[in-house]
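Example S7 (structure tokens).
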């Protein structure tokens, strides 16, 4: 671990300067794109009132959403988790690159070192760019499904679903254990693809980039901030292929018909394959949160960190994982 003064200072200020870095969803082009869509889509589709664009602005940036108790908790948690996670937990994450190098070395030991690429440079770059994104997205879907279906992991995932209002900052309302599980899923499958292509490409493999990221991640992030918003944007027939912001908002619903649905990130095909896809026929209204009687009680940083660990330990002991009545207060 790097505890140099320079690294500690960079880590401390990073949450406040995230809009300058392409590797975060808060990079300014992504925020700008989300803002334009948040105002433009309701105005174009006529979902605002007679006020037109002004009404759309009011709806997208409503104080009721951006200054809700849930959102204020998001702000506090974002700053503290943004400092602690890189220092304490991030070094434990196995990256897709590290796993990919191990896969490449394993294949070379088993099959011998390749002297020349299997395909020409352009072909292998295109194939790797597509294959990596598909594998990484599928890995994250599997991890997300695990977080919903396995009681132990659900206790940590509750932190994210305890949000009752959605803004782009809500994406960072995630327990460190939850982040580790999600990273493991994506990085294992992404690393498997990386290792395979490193071997087939004789080490000469690269990815097409957009705004400093994998091109598909970059394009995804142009709309990604609307996933955690109250701006209803669905893709119509494409909802069966890609997860729209509206479908992810449904994922946060407390209604039974929405529970554990739309666990995908970019692609809806994984949800279709595993029977977790929910495609709305029209705009739906629904409350957000956990819907288990504890809504409104999670909005402190201490509880967001501590409660999941207590509840997960109760699951291991076969006890009731819900917060005790004495603690379920604001």
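Recovered sequence:
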């Amino acid at each position: 671990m790097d505890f140099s003064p320079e690294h500690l200072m960079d880590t401390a200020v990073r949450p406040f300067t995230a809009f300058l870095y392409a590797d975060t969803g808060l990079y300014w082009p992504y925020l700008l794109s989300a803002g334009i869509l948040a105002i433009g889509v309701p105005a174009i589709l006529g979902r605002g009132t007679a006020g037109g664009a002004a009404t759309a602005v009011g709806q997208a940036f409503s104080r009721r959403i951006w200054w809700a108790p849930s959102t204020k908790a998001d702000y506090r948690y974002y700053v503290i988790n943004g400092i602690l996670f890189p220092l304490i937990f991030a070094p434990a994450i196995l990256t897709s690159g590290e796993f990919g190098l191990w896969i490449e070395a394993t294949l070379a030991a088993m099959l011998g070192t390749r002297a020349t690429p299997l395909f020409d440079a352009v072909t292998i770059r295109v194939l790797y760019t597509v294959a990596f994104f598909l594998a990484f997205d599928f890995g994250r879907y599997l991890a997300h499904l695990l977080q919903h279906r396995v009681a132990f992991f659900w206790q940590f995932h509750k932190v994210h679903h305890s949000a009752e209002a959605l803004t782009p900052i809500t994406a960072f309302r995630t327990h460190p254990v939850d982040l580790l599980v999600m990273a493991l899923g994506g990085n294992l499958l992404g690393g498997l693809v990386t290792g395979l292509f490193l071997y087939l490409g004789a080490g000469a493999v690269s990815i097409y980039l957009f705004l400093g990221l994998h091109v598909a991640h970059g394009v995804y992030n142009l709309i990604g901030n609307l996933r955690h918003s109250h701006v209803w944007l669905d893709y119509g027939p494409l909802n069966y292929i890609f997860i729209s912001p509206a479908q992810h908002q449904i994922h946060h619903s407390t209604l039974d018909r929405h529970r554990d649905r739309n666990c995908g990130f970019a692609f809806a095909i994984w949800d279709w394959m595993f029977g977790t896809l929910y495609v709305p026929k029209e705009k739906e209204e629904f409350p957000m949160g956990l819907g288990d009687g504890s809504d409104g009680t999670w909005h402190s940083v201490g509880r967001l960190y501590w409660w999941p660990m207590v509840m997960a330990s109760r699951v291991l002991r076969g006890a009731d994982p819900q917060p005790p009545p004495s603690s379920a207060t604001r």
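Notes on this example. The longest strand covers residues 209-210.
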